[in-house]
Structure to design on (302 residues):
């Protein structure tokens, strides 16, 4: 099955209307370039608490609902699917969800993924947990015969999530990020501590997040779209990775842009684990056949 994905980045801010303006322009560009689906960064519409703004105190929820409706209408007008990073308000007394809305070409929300592993301490005083309520479910949906799933940022640290999605038949992951809005001093200080000749990126997040996508794609034979905010300083540019673990395209950081990738799930790409992945998933952690041999059981002799 063929599918064309637009992985989109722009400088997210706390200004919902400005974010909507960027998203709308990128949606139109994505459609012009033949995309079936456009994928946006974490909290792209709402802004991301702790980075784009300090908190959700005095947040304009009415404006967010209005802008979300505008995006839904535009998705219908363009007949394009949208993976929209935003914030989902809960009832009074509860922190909101950090979410990805799955919007179809009819302008309908067909599902919503809520970030399951929000970063922070066990007392929920730091990181995401200071601002958000964690989610509790996987989201799987079909676009033109391609089984898709969703994850958000810090979820990348938990390979169990990718494994579960593989068991659910997911072929394409929409993994939204917000690794941006660092000061130049922060960025330079990080760069001074990391050997870029060995790690390839001057920040911890820029190194580990990209490395994890190489591993998650190749370990699970899965395509992954990885949009990031381009708000300066962005830690890395949005990219797309194939199921063989190879990055097929990447945008420059700190710039608004769109990366268009066409996949074909009938392509046979390199997959060294195909013969034994199901064994590992079912709890049989070996390949080939085991033997009953005394020399195998004796692990203290040579």
């Amino acid at each position: 099955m063929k599918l064309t994905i637009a992985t989109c980045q722009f400088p997210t801010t706390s200004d919902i209307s400005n974010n909507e303006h960027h998203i709308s322009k990128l949606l139109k560009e994505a459609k012009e370039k033949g995309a079936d689906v456009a994928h946006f960064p974490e909290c792209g519409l709402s802004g991301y608490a702790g980075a784009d703004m300090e908190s959700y105190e005095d947040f304009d929820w009415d404006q967010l609902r209005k802008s979300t409706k505008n995006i839904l209408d535009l998705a219908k007008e363009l007949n394009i699917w949208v993976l929209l990073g935003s914030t989902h308000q809960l009832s009074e007394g509860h922190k909101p969800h950090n979410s990805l809305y799955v919007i179809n070409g009819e302008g309908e929300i067909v599902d919503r993924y809520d970030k399951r592993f929000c970063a922070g301490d066990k007392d929920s005083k730091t990181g995401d947990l200071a601002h958000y309520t964690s989610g509790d479910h996987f989201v799987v949906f079909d676009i033109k015969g391609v089984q898709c799933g969703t994850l958000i940022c810090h979820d990348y640290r938990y390979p169990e999530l990718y494994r579960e999605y593989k068991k659910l038949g997911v072929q394409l992951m929409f993994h939204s990020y917000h690794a941006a809005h660092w000061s130049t001093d922060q960025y330079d200080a990080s760069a001074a501590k990391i050997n870029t000749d060995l790690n390839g990126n001057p920040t911890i997040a820029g190194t580990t997040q990209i490395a994890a996508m190489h591993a998650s794609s190749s370990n699970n034979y899965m395509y992954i779209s990885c949009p990031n905010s381009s708000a300066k300083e962005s830690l890395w540019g949005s990219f797309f990775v194939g199921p063989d673990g190879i990055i097929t395209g990447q945008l420059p950081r700190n710039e608004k842009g769109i990366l268009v990738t066409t996949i074909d799930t009938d392509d046979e790409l390199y997959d060294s684990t195909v013969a034994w992945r199901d064994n590992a998933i079912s709890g049989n952690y070996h390949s080939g056949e085991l033997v009953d041999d005394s020399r195998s059981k004796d692990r203290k002799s040579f």
User: Anything to note?
Assistant: The longest strand covers residues 2-9. DSSP finds eight helices and twelve strands in the chain. The mean pLDDT is 96.
